[in-house]
Structures are given as C-alpha cells and as structure tokens.
Amino acid sequence: MKLQGIILPIALTALAACNNSQNTQELSPQKLSPQKQDAHQAVSQAKQDDERLAERLATVETRVEALLALLTLEEKISLTHANAKFSIASIERLGIHEMWMSDGPHGVRHEIERYSWNSANWKDDYSTYLPPLTAVAASWDPAMATLHGNVLGSEARHRRKDVILGPGVNLARLPLYGRNFEYLGEDPYLAAKLVVPQVKAIQRNDVAASVKHYALNTQELNRTGVDAKPDERTLREIYLPAFEAAVKEGNTQTIMGSYNRYYGTNVNQSKHLVMDILKGEWGYKGILLTDWNVDINTYDAAMNGLDIEMGTNVKNYDDYFLAQPLLEMIESGKVPLAVLDDKVRRILRVQLTIGMMDKKRLSGQRNITEHHQAARDIIANAVVLLKNEDQVLPLNEDKIKTILVLGPNAEMLHSQGGGSSEVKSLYEISPVQGLKDRFGDKVEITVMRAQSGAAVSPIATDYMAVRHWTGTPQWELTRFVDRLHQKILRADDWIANSAYRVSEPGQAEYVQLSTLIKPLATGSHKLQLALDGQASLSIDGKQVLTHQSESLTIIEHSIMLNAGQGYHFELNYNGSGSVVLGWEAPSALFTPESEYLAAAKSADAVIYFGGLSHADDREAIDRADMKLPNGQDKVIAKLIATNPDTVVFLNGGSAVEMPWAQQAKAIVWGWYGGMEAGNAYVDILFGDVNPSGKMPITLPVKLADTAPIALDDYNAVESLYKEGVFIGYRWFEQQNIKPLFPFGHGLSYTQFEYSDIKLSSASFEEDASLTVTVKVTNTGKRDGSEVVQLYLHDIDASVPRPIKELKGFSKIALKAGESGEISITLNQRDLSFWDVKTNNWLAEPGEFEVMLGSSVEDIRQKARFTYR
Which PROSITE patterns match (predicted)? Predict the structure, then answer.
C-alpha cells in the first residue's frame, strides 16, 4: 500500500501533464536563428531552454519506474509495436498518448492515412523542403547541420510529431546506391562530426531524432536480403563511428535499424550489433525501432534488443512479431518479462524526455520565413564549384542580355520524389524560376529541351500518368521465368522510363513493362521501337507492334491518340540485349538539335542544368550505371563544342561519369537544393554568393574504378566489404587511381593561402591531446570561405592504414585580403585503429604526419609529431 501511495500521485501527475500538453500553442517556440536576435534575448532563451530541459530530465527515471509498475502485461506489449502506419498505442488511463512518427530526413513528410500508404489529402501538411543531407555534408559546416536540424525539429513539432525519422548516416560506398542523396557522404569522420549537431538541434525542439539505418545499409539491390559481412575492423572504423557519435555525443533518442542482414540475420536482431555494441559498449538508453517490413522473428528480435516493430506485412497489428507472438512467449516463459520491461522503460524514457507528458512542451513553427531562408542558406553553403577555367564564373550580369537554358533539371522539381524522403513543399523554386525572379524582363531567358540525338529516346515522363510510391514516373516491371511469359519470376519491380537493358549482357531475360500514357496533344504519334531480341507492344490490349531481330533494329508505326485520354501500354521483351520504346509526338516537347546549337552559339550565356533526378536517386532501387541518363553526355559535349563557355550545372546525390569534363570550362555541382534551390543557384552563378562547398564524395572517372565494382563485391546475395577500411578516397589513393574530382575538392571565386603550421607539442601521450594551427589568408579580391581539412598518416603502422585519413576540418570566412587562424585538436582516438587482437582501439607509439589541405589531393602544409 505504501508503494502505491508513492506511485499513484506520480502517475496522476503525469496524466495531468500529458493532458495539458495538447494545448501548447501559446508557448514561445524555439527560436531558429539566435544570431539574428538581440544577444541578450538569445542568451535568455537558451537559458530558459536549458532550465526547462533540466527540470524535466531530473524526474524522468522516477516517472519511468512509476508508470512501468502500473502497466499490465498487455499494455506493455502494446507499446512495442505499431498500432497504425506511423504511431504507437496510447494508454490513456495513465496519460500515455499515442507516439507519432514521421519520415523526414529533409522535411516532414505529408500526412498519410492511418492504416494505408495513401495520402490523407490534408490541406495543411506542407513543410519546408530542406536540401538533403548530402548538401549538409558538402557544406562541411556544423552550423549548417544545426540549422538543418532545428528547422526539421521545429516543423515536426508543429505537425504534432514525436519522432522524426532521420538523420541518415550510412556511407556512400557505392555510387550506384539509390539512397546516397539522403546521407552524409563517404567518410566516417565527416559524417560523425555533422550528425551530432543535427541530432542535438532536432531534439532541442522536443522531438526525438532517429538516426538511420543501423547498420551497413549500403545498397538497395535486394536490400531486405543481402548479407553484409565486413570484418570487425572495417565495421568499427568505417560503418559505426557516425552511429557511435550520435549515441555518445548527440544523445539520440531513437535509432532505426536497416533492412539488410548481418552475418545471417537481420540487423535489428543481431546480438553483436545491438546487444554487444549499441546497448552494451556504447551504453545506449534509447529506442531501437525497425524500418517498415523487415525480416525478423519474435524470439531473436525480443532477446537481442529490438524495442519497437514499426511495419510488418500482416493483416492485423496484433500479429506483429512483437505483439501477440511476444505476449505468448512471455506467458510461456520462453522470453523473460525483464526483457519486455527493458523495452518499455526505453520507450517511456524517450516519451518523457521529449516532453510527451509535459505541459511546457514546445509547439514548434512551420513554413515561416526563417525556415525558408535556412533552406536557401544551407544549399548556398553546399554548392561545389568543380571547375572554373578562364573565370567563366561568376557570370557578369552587366554584360548579359540573353541566356539560353537547357537540361532536364532546368524546370524539374525534386521535392515529391526519392521515396520515404519525399516532402510536400509549400513551394519549390526551379533554376529557370530563379533566373526569371532575378532578371524579370531585363534579360531574355530562352528555355529549350534538348534530346541526345539518339535514334530512339524513351517516351518522356511528361506523358506518364503512373507514379511509383517514391514519387517518380513508373513503368511496372514484371520478370518471367519463360519466353511465353506464363510463370512469373518477380512482379514487384519498376523502372522510370521505357528503356530496358538486361542486367548481364548475353543472358536472356523475359520481361514486361506496363504503364498508363496520356498524350498531350491529339494527333498521329509515330511509335519507335529499338530492340535487340524479340518485342511486342500492345495498347489497351491490342497489339500494335511486334518484331524479332538478332541485331539492334528500329521499327516504327503511327497511331492516332487523343490528348488527355489514358492508354494502357504493355511492352513485352525477350532477349539478351536491350529494348527502347519512343515516339515522335505532335506536342513537340523537344527542340531540334540544329536549333538549340544555333541558339547556344549566339547566346551571351549558356547554362545546362542536368544531372540526376529522383528517377535515378531513389529508395528501393540502385542505378544501373554511373552515366548521366537519357543521353545527356551527347548534348553537353555538343553544347561545349559550340559554345566553350557553356556552364554545366549538375544535380544529384551520387557520382556520375563526365566524359566531356576535360573540354568543359565551368562545372558546378548543386545536389538537390531544397525549396529555394533556384534562387540559391542563381546567387552562386552570378557571384552574390561565393561558393564554398566541398565534395563529401569522390567523383570517379568511371564506375570500374570504384572498390565494390573493381573487387566484384556488388551483388544481391552478400557483400563482403573486400576493400576493408579503404572506402572512397582511401581506395583511390591506395590503388593510385586518379579520380575525376577528389574528395574534399571545391573551388572558390577567390584564392586562399595556407602558412605557418604549428603544433602545440612535438609529441603527446595517452589521454592527452595535440592542437594543430595554421594561418589562412584570402589572397583574392572577393570575400569567401575556405574549408581547411586535416588528414593524418601513421608513418609506421603494424596494420595496413590509409595514406590519408580525415581527422579534422574547419570552415573559416575571410574578407578579401584578410587572414585568420584555425585550430584543430587531435586526441588518442584520432590516432587509433581497431585492434582485432584486443577488441579495442589502439594508438601505436610512433611518428604521425599531419597534412592540411583544400582537398585530399591538394595538401598545403605538413608537420610531424610523435605519439608516446
């Protein structure tokens, strides 16, 4: 009775607080940019936030135990699995409300129906569309990570979300990986240093971050079945540091497990990854939750640390692995009750920590001017100037009266694609819109759509009426076992356009492509079929084309179609080569080659906005190759030959080949730029903003140069991580392969000189540190920012170590002619590798070399020290 006397008042207090938490609009929200406020107000706000959080955290553990004691077994079970697509059950009698989650690594996802993936068709679920995390990584700036996280957290709270499913920190091991755009580049140190401020900023808004995907999610090819098998040193040094930093330094409240397997079992139920490392060595106190529809089982998931099961392909939520099956295992004694209690403690701890039962919980803000400006600031700091011969950039607007704009990304909007990261943006400024907003009628801006001149190009996506759940145009792809298409091999694939190539040349495949096509104009459409093998095309069930050829052949057929009417296209292909379905349509979307080249020759400025889109960079599917899609290379090469000052501006989250790069004078990389992309891009092109972004990935000359491809370690069955710790730039240096553009590369409209490198000591010992300082001078005529990168080399290591390892960076803003000093501190962990003999980090005594540079290839200053 005495125990109840203690517990019940606490529980009732929690219930009252939770009830009050639903009416928080009158509370002052977290301020986005304290630097724009009065200094006294900013300090006061920060102090209030710290006091509020400290007061809440002081009672969390006591309240957790009090609530746990009052929960029934069934109520505990209800907290460990979803009760709808994005929520966890409430227990209203104790003041525990539903915990709501949302996708959103770069913007809170639009609202979907409670029990389906269909849109809820809300009229007020627009969010700020931020640049993806590759752009944050390209800024090399923790301040941008903080800005990004603060917007994300504030908007999630305003949408009444408790957990935002991001940020993502898986590394860009493979350029083909469909989700590289969501993550923080190829280097574990860079990712670790940027995820911490991101997580902290999100969670200061009373929202739990969910760092994902733990771990080794480096391909979409058979993402639910591929077995990741890195050696322990590779795991520790490369693929876990960002997660470790998020836990130990960022105090992330939740972590999302990945789809793939790890040595034979799904990572969500891996004893080594979860119990030994995450919850053991790192002492993680938060929640591990699944992605949707992962391959787990009840016993292993329960015993090996999974806390919440969010999505499983069953009809009833009670049939989830951590629902009724777990209840039965606990009642039978197969799973101890203590195992369940640990999960519930973690869930309650997170709910209390983020203020779900706190009347002073922040309410957030959404789509305010400061958030939109943040999106613009982030991408402005992330754009990378790859090449700028003859100072083609910045463009001089005083001398420009005509601008020719070409390329598939000139008017493309990217917010609605990519998969679970799609955002219902309030607006999105395309590059063309950005130019028009800047110049109005002062400059003649001509927009043309150019095709490659290939014999047959795929039917443009403008005509496609079907969208994949990732938001991109879709041709449903069905694979068959036999030539007669009677036995289905796989029916859940898709591709983005009407061009198909077999995965292994020479190996016969039997496929069917289907979609809904809506013509833009009524009239005769000349169908074109380029094939190597056997193909047939049916429209609304009627066969209109069929042909078989052993060599590449083109056949044509004209047909009358009506504007706006939907036609079901079905293309069947049997062969060991390729098939492309195109047409010449009366709507004339594309400009003839002779016309756009003539315009390029006479224009004062030519800008080609090309690259990738979310038809290429997207969840669920990897790219087939590293080439620019739809023949862009041919168009770019011809434009450069016609007008050598053509500016090539590329979007994308992964590397692409650039066979025309040597001829191009100006190349810019803009990632996916968020809702303010067009405005920010124009700021860069015309010099209002001096570019300062640096590549967080290596851009290879060709796909075959990359480690997974060179080592034949990319397939649907298992990934052995044969390159070990030599990921990205480390591989290129080890193999002496010259990339197209190196990791860390990025030019400016000004120049920077490094001088006077100094070490705080010639040596240091265990548990001490060493500080490296260098003087940086802006020797040019423009204000600008430089990212100083510190690479470390172990001179005489007992194990193979990279020639250079990123171990520090600092971004410094300098006015023209100004000098400044940056300092970077190294500690024992920075010097260490994972020693498989002792299962611990080891810094070996000996000599180390510090290299400071503007990229991994552009080293400006060096010094040596001794570790004792």
Answer: PA14, PROKAR_LIPOPROTEIN
